[in-house]
Design goal:
It is a single chain. This protein starts with 14 loop residues before the first helix and ends with a helix. By secondary structure, it is mostly helical. The chain is globular, with a radius of gyration of 20 Å. The chain has a 3-stranded antiparallel beta sheet. It is built from 10 helices and 3 strands; from the N terminus they run αβααββααααααα. Helix 4 packs across helix 6. Strand 2 and strand 3 form a beta hairpin. This is GntR family transcriptional regulator. InterPro entries: GntR_C, TF_FadR/GntR_C, Tscrpt_reg_HTH_GntR, WH-like_DNA-bd_sf, WH_DNA-bd_sf. It holds the Pfam family GntR.
């Protein structure tokens, strides 16, 4: 870092990083659907780039587990079977349960303030009955919950589940609880933190995750 007030070059993302972000977002929101095959020529044309950085970006997503390489066939977006979905939510439960414990042992007031703001975004989306916006706000609420724990490692672990969680949420949209019920589920979490009731908070976060697993199972034939 230079001297105080001295201007320095602003870090810029590489083409590979930008393309990786684009592909993650497309997978997250379903533009690239589960099981879809990725054609290099088509994607390079759509993104307006050469195949070199595209190949590197796709390999990053293979390493992250979002794409799978099938010999003699190519690259495909992962599909999440029932076991994968359950594993995603059990991993989230482990992370968020520990985040809740840390919140209760640290600065509950700051957590409540941040989560209340996140809850308001969910309320707005629920009022409009916008399922995509509700999924966005739902996910953002839980990101704030983990971030409020003050543990960068828990936050990093939660971030690795970000795209898979969103793929689950896309599947959940048809079986989401009523908007008012979804808001109430999250409001109870905030209230438990505000009231200092750790035992109730841990029960609520477990119920929240297991209910999501049950709803996702209901979407499958």
């Amino acid at each position: 870092m230079g001297r105080l007030g001295e201007l320095e070059p602003v870090p810029r993302k590489s083409t590979v990083e930008i393309v990786s972000d684009e592909l993650r977002s497309a997978i997250m929101y379903g533009s690239l659907e589960p099981g879809a095959q990725l054609g290099e020529a088509e994607l390079a044309g759509r993104l307006g780039i050469s195949r070199g950085p595209l190949r590197e970006a796709m390999q990053r997503l293979v390493q992250e587990g979002l794409l799978v390489s099938e010999p003699h066939r190519g690259l495909f977006v992962i599909t999440l079977d029932e076991g994968d979905v359950e594993d995603v939510y059990l991993a989230r439960l482990a992370i968020e349960r520990e985040a809740c414990r840390l919140i209760m042992a640290r600065n509950r007031g700051e957590a409540v303030a941040r989560l209340t703001e996140a809850l308001e975004a969910l309320v707005d989306a629920a009022r409009q009955r916008d399922r995509v916006a509700m999924s966005d706000a739902d996910q953002a609420f839980h990101e704030v919950l983990v971030s409020s724990s003050g543990s960068p490692r828990l936050e990093r672990m939660a971030h690795t589940l970000l795209v898979e969680t969103r793929m689950c949420l896309n599947a959940l949209q048809d079986t989401y609880p009523e908007p008012s019920d979804l808001v109430e589920e999250h409001r109870r979490l905030v209230d438990a933190i505000g009231d200092g009731e750790e035992e109730r908070l841990l029960v609520l976060i477990e119920e929240h995750m297991t209910d999501s697993i049950h709803r996702l199972r209901a979407t499958r034939p």
